[in-house]
Sequence to fold (468 residues):
Amino acid sequence: MGENRNLTSLSLCKKINMSLPRIGIIGTGWFGCALKTAWTPLIGKTISGIDIWKLPGDRPKNDPDILVLAIPSTAKNGDKLAILDYIESFPRASIVVTSKGRKALKIFQKHISPADKWRVFSLSGPNLADQIGHTPTATKIAGNSLQTAEFLAQTLSSNFLDVEASESIEIVQRGGMLKNFLVFELGKVWSSLSSPEEKVEAILLAIHAGFESVNIAAPGEEDRAEFLGISGLGDILLCLGIFPHADGSRNFRAGKALSLGKNNEEEILKEFKTLEGLILSQKFHFGRRSRSFRGPQMDVFCDMVKQKKISSFHKSQFPELTGLMHSVWRKFLAVAEKKHFQSNTHSWVSCELLIEVAGANLVSLSRWESSEPFIRSLLEALLFPSPKKDLVASTLTLKIWTRLISNLPFLKHSSTGPRLKHLLPASSRHSTQRFFGWKWALNLSGVNRDTGKRASRGTKSQSRKRRD
Fold:
């Protein structure tokens, strides 16, 4: 069955490649309109046109090749869930679903037929709708067919929206659901955290809880690493409002309002309307938690939220690592201020920084024990004031910064436009091996934490080969 699906996916790609595909977007809300804005410049280049409509009766004459469902997972066409109705009504189209949460996850897990699963994809990432098309933004498209996901990623990447492919569709959906719950819970305790150290520890507990929950639900190395990318970690950081001129997501702001006693839960629902985080929080604390919210670390995190304090926190054991993150992040902030980047971009670059520094140390993001020092150092770089003096050599900072620019050309001071990663070869953008790439060791501690052996740079020629 798997081989047949891959063959079908490949034939679909070939078929679509014969002529430019047409995009249809169902949903005229903020997100649907933002996607239309981002993809309009692609007409005549990678797509033939875009149709956007709201109701089933508004369906255009020409059926789309790629149908984007920018509608809530609870929306209905008559007595039927709208997502399932559209999947059946457009049997030849690749379907891209933008909604996330427990109901969307349930649709993917239980309600999509085996014959249709290969052509249904999830779109998720740190994407505030009002910033799409105005600041460089990255998003993840995940599906059971990686070949088709890669084709869709290349087709839908525009000058301001970079789309990355993944086959971890359940983790991308599960990450969106966990994000809603975790940021709502963090909002409930945020005002009680008086120092940056406490906030770093609270966020770290939340990320660890989510990482463990993902591992319980889908214990695969690439799945775990996916949670520490833009569709998991990046989305959480964006929703917390820790970047300049950012307010946080609805779930986060609702959690803060509840903790300050400004509203009760009924009033908050009226004010914020759809609140996935609140609903998940109610189920969790009343003993109706699902498999996605089990594990010792989830209990530790929720105990912290109930007590509204951090019992103990730890400083980074690798100050040079934090110093490196700080130095590179300051370089980015200087560029971001000059080019007026918004929080979508900040979230994306922070994830890229984590991946590059971890990769430079030959550390896989699929293990929490080896990933934790890097995540902690990143959070300290984002939340702590700049150190009085640099703890790392400028050449080391320059190596990481140069690597970031090679992946994200819009970071160049001289660049006149965003120039996103879709301008690079597809292999460098969508390879799942990026988590294990860049074979040059920073050797900050002198030991590879995965193998326990001392790292060695080798000769200059060997280092050059590793970097390549």
